[in-house]
């Protein structure tokens, strides 16, 4: 048992260390990028040629812009030759993080710059659409669908984005008011490819189960 706890502690420590390092790198890269941007403006006015190059922390900063919705800095990273489809240690791209966070402006920017829309992460096999729908981001979901995202691609649990959203709506801890909006939207958009509603072992559809859960909650007078 002690070996399990030691192993778990080691994993958590490594993860926290990675997050801390990414944050530090992102901060340093942000300062560097601002300086480089000013130098580029000077080069334009003086007629000098300014070369773009990689710099430490650029990718960490790029992911942070996707999480925070900082489209301006994301654009600067792309102008400095940041690979739009570079992945982190979980196989997630900036598009995954933008969809997960509901950063619609950054999401649109990444799509315009050729981001791989159906790329799956290595953790759970999730696409950007899986993330946007699961976390209840209506606009991000619509943006991805309108851009041609696959609505039938399966994750590692053999669930498409619609099914994953239905699963989320079953859990009171993760359910969002927007989940039913997304479910309805995806069902309409999938047309002939739509999958039957998920059912629990008692045969209740997702919608009926959510309604039953809502009725069991304390009601306001």
From TrEMBL:
GO terms for molecular function: ubiquitin-protein transferase activity. Pfam families: Ank_2 (PF12796). GO terms for biological process: protein K6-linked ubiquitination. Gene3D superfamilies: Ankyrin repeat-containing domain (1.25.40.20). Residues 1-16 form the signal peptide. ANK repeats lie at residues 90-122, 124-156. It comes from the Eukaryota. Keywords: ANK repeat, Repeat, Signal. InterPro entries: Ankyrin_rpt (IPR002110), Ankyrin_rpt-contain_sf (IPR036770). This is Uncharacterized protein. It comes from Phytophthora cactorum. The lineage of its organism: Eukaryota, Sar, Stramenopiles, Oomycota, Peronosporomycetes.
């Amino acid at each position: 048992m002690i070996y399990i706890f030691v192993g778990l502690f080691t994993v958590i420590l490594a993860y926290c260390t990675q997050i801390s390092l990414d944050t530090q790198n992102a901060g340093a890269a942000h300062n560097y990028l601002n300086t480089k941007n000013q130098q580029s403006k000077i080069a334009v006015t003086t007629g000098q040629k300014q070369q773009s190059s990689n710099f430490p922390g650029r990718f960490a900063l790029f992911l942070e812009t996707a999480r925070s919705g900082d489209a301006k800095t994301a654009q600067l990273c792309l102008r400095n030759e940041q690979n739009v489809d570079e992945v982190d240690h979980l196989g997630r791209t900036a598009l995954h993080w933008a969809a997960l966070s509901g950063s619609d402006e950054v999401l649109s920017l990444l799509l315009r710059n050729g981001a791989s829309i159906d790329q799956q992460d290595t953790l759970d096999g999730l696409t950007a659409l899986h993330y946007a729908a699961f976390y209840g981001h209506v606009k991000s979901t619509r943006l991805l669908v309108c851009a041609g995202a696959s609505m039938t691609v399966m994750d590692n649990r053999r669930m498409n984005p619609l099914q994953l959203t239905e699963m989320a709506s079953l859990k009171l801890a993760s359910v969002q008011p927007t989940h039913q909006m997304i479910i309805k939207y995806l069902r309409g958009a999938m047309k002939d490819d739509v999958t039957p509603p998920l059912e629990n072992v008692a045969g209740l559809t997702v919608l009926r189960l959510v309604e039953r859960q809502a009725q069991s909650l304390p009601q306001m007078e």
